[in-house]
Amino acid sequence: MRDRFWELPLKSLKPDEWEALCDGCGKCCLNKIEYEDTNELAFTRVACRLLDGQTCQCSSYPNRHDYVPDCIVLTPKKLKEIAWWLPATCAYRLRSEGKPLYEWHHLISGDRDTIHRAGASVQGWTISEASVTEDDWDDYIIEDLA
């Protein structure tokens, strides 16, 4: 990968650089409730059944669409359409807005656990969607993902 590739325009990133940009927070794997009448979006602490709540990684990333067909494949083009539902700390969102990565990002710190120590991931506080019915998701709404 190129030196400091994360500072380049997103559309110029190579596939491995794009994947490496992910900060590993797990926040995009949280289920959201979209209220059709107001278009508001509420994040819940109910996570995709494939999210490992300790590592904040997908337990079947290469095959995730076999289990979760509507899992979004994030691309620079799609990012423009859906950036509003990504958390404010998301590396993809930050870079699309021309902002720098946080110091706890593994590309800056050199350590993938820095994000967890900084409290910027979902490590240890999610509940799997396998154990909560969709009708009960509103019981798990969280206030802020910053």
TrEMBL record:
Stored HAMAP family: UPF0260
Protein name per Swiss-Prot or TrEMBL: UPF0260 protein SAMN06265221_104150
Stretch forming the signal peptide: none
Name of one Pfam family that matches: CxxCxxCC
Organism: Paracoccus laeviglucosivorans
Membrane-spanning parts: none
Annotated family: Belongs to the UPF0260 family.
